Amino acid sequence: MASASASATLSFLALPQRPRPRRCSGGSRNPSVLGLSSISIGSGPAAGGRRRGLRLSVCRAAAVVFRDLDADDFRHPLDKQNTLILRAIPGLNDLGRALLGNVTEQVMLLENIGTSVLVSKNQLSDLHELMVEAARILNIEAPDLYIRQSPVPNAYTLAIGGKKPFVVVHTSLVELLTRKELQAVLAHELGHLKCDHGVWLTFANILTLGAYSVPGLGGLIAQRLEEQLFRWLRAAELTCDRAALLVAQDPKVVISVLMKLAGGIPSLADQLNVDAFLEQARSYEKAASSPVGWYIRNAQTRQLSHPLPVLRAREIDEWSRSQDYQALLRRAAQINSLQNV
Prior knowledge:
Blueprint: E1 7-8, H1 77-87, H2 92-113, E2 116-118, H3 125-137, E3 144-148, E4 155-159, E5 166-170, H4 171-176, H5 179-194, H6 198-212, H7 218-248, H8 251-263, H9 274-287, H10 291-301, H11 309-320, H12 323-339
Parallel strand pairs: 3-5
Antiparallel strand pairs: 1-4, 2-3, 4-5
Helix pairs in contact: 1-7, 2-6, 3-5, 5-7, 5-8, 6-7, 7-11, 8-9, 8-11, 9-11
């Protein structure tokens, strides 16, 4: 992914966050220092009450590989619309580069890989195969994958100054999710790279943070750009949930991750019910359909970085039953069949 500046995606598991001014401090830091928010779900027993280690069984090859997949084949309409709006803002790209600079790039790079383990064929090979398979399904080059020791379940992607992008996954996330759910998270991160979200995600994650620290300019940037950036962010997350579905090819896998984000309890994982959570999502839509409910919903979400988990679950359920998604599956299956003859 070509990028003139550092770019960072939001975590798939990030709770909807309102922006807050923060400064890097000495000592141990984590991705939230740079605007990469995360959710503290905690590690623990996996489904069935059994604790899992890092050793995983690799997923079997997916039935459908999207050999000619283009980003616009699955990009959410709101993503397209809000990207055009951002591109129309004069000087935004130059301002972002000025605020970021080479120092910030190096901080991001060293912070996120300095204490991690690089996954490869010879290092955590099962995780390596999950990433390679997800990238193959989405028709994209696999980025580097790092595993970082952390009790906070999280995953995020960075692309630094045109260098090869990489994905960072926390160990507690590996323990929290099933292997199919973990691969869906990897696919979500790949979706950001596939759709070239890096530049705009940089602005949302770091430009807003930097703007607060520039005297006289911070308030102006926050007022003018913050709402639009976060509106775009929410749309971009919907796009990448679709990428997760293209790899998982089962909407319940993606919805299960969102359910665990909203209130999953590792020790009771065997009692979690995806269908019940999806029904909860439908009830939220119904409750928000009245004039008062519509106003409250907009007030709740206007300054959030991520859509509410129930809304993301509803969106992915609807897209999984859409003609567009089914057409993508049929086209890919036909291409696969012809190439396998």
